[in-house]
Amino acid sequence: MSGIVAIVNPVAGRGRAGRTWPAFEAALRRRGVSPEVWYTAAPGDAREMARRARERHVELLLVTGGDGTVHEAVNGLGPGGPALVVVPLGTGNDLARGLQISPTPEGIADVVTRGHVRRLDLGHLETAEGGRYFVNVSGAGLDAEVARRVYEEGGPGRGALPYVLSMLRTLRRYRNVLMEIHVDGRVHRHVSLMTVVGNSPYYGGGMHILPGATPDDAQFDILLIGDLGKLETLMVFPKVFRGTHVRHRLVTCLRGATVEIRSREQVAVHADGEPAGYLPVRYRNHPGGMAVVVPAGAARHAAAASRPPGEPAPAHSPKAHSE
Ligand SMILES: Nc1ncnc2c1ncn2[C@@H]1O[C@H](COP(=O)(O)OP(=O)(O)OP(=O)(O)O)[C@@H](O)[C@H]1O
């Protein structure tokens, strides 16, 4: 078989995806596009459906939902496979935000009929729990602890607010830890609130955590956040929404293709906001591993497009202790 399949997670965006998908399908049909529609019934289905779509040599795979659904789909596909069209009807939609995809029926019909394929880097991480791919951002430390809590308390339809509330609760008891971060063979040791590794600029429903990230440069952007106290963390946190946290003296931006993080402490790891085990973690990038259809006029570099007007690209400053 070839053709177009649409995976639809009806509970994404607190049910918005299920409610509004028929309008998207109608807009596609008006343009002569008739996808085969597969509704997910439970967590994990999008992964299996994507695997099946790949086996059947589907040409175009629409993934309707939020970042969790996209995360599942790419884990079913792995590097290669059909081109994805993200129909961003979740609560966060961080990948689509970076790619300037408009969540309207006509916007998606435009992407399908007139968009172009962009090959993005696909991140992969490995912990003792196993390996998995991620599309946006992974990390170890406070944010992973927060993600674990949100996941345990959550369910679908999460968005930014539960992350913010959980961050405040988690921070009260959180203790910074000594981490050893290997980036392309260089070792950085520091006491860290958290370390972030990713290909795309956004996570957590609009937090501009890696403002310099370019999703197709074959490199991870890496943020080493040093030994921030609790009060200082609370003061820096709002800046994450504008991406200006990277100017803080205890924040170091790096780039690299292979990353490994270790610690003697038990430190949680997340992948696209899903719990992914504990340190040690090893990252490797698959350049161009994910084909995504983007709008015809989309800016080449999503990071540049998403930066506030007048905001310079963050300097990459290897300040942490390295050897
Ligand atoms: N039919 C279903 N019933 C319950 N859960 C489902 C179903 N289909 C998929 N899921 C789960 O729903 C979860 C949430 O989906 P998703 O993350 O796409 O939406 P969201 O949380 O609204 O958006 P975002 O992640 O962008 O904030 C996924 O982790 C997936 O495993």
From TrEMBL:
Stated name of the protein: DAGKc domain-containing protein
Statement: the UniProt record of this protein carries the keyword Kinase: yes
PROSITE patterns assigned to the protein according to its UniProt record, in alphabetical order: DAGK (PS50146)
Keywords: ATP-binding, Kinase, Lipid biosynthesis, Lipid metabolism, Magnesium, Metal-binding, Nucleotide-binding, Phospholipid biosynthesis, Phospholipid metabolism, Transferase
GO molecular function terms attached to this record: ATP binding; kinase activity; metal ion binding
Region (Disordered): 301-323
Boundaries of every DAGKc domain copy: 1-129
The organism of origin for this protein: Thermaerobacter subterraneus DSM 13965
GO biological process: phospholipid biosynthetic process
Cofactor (UniProt): Mg(2+)
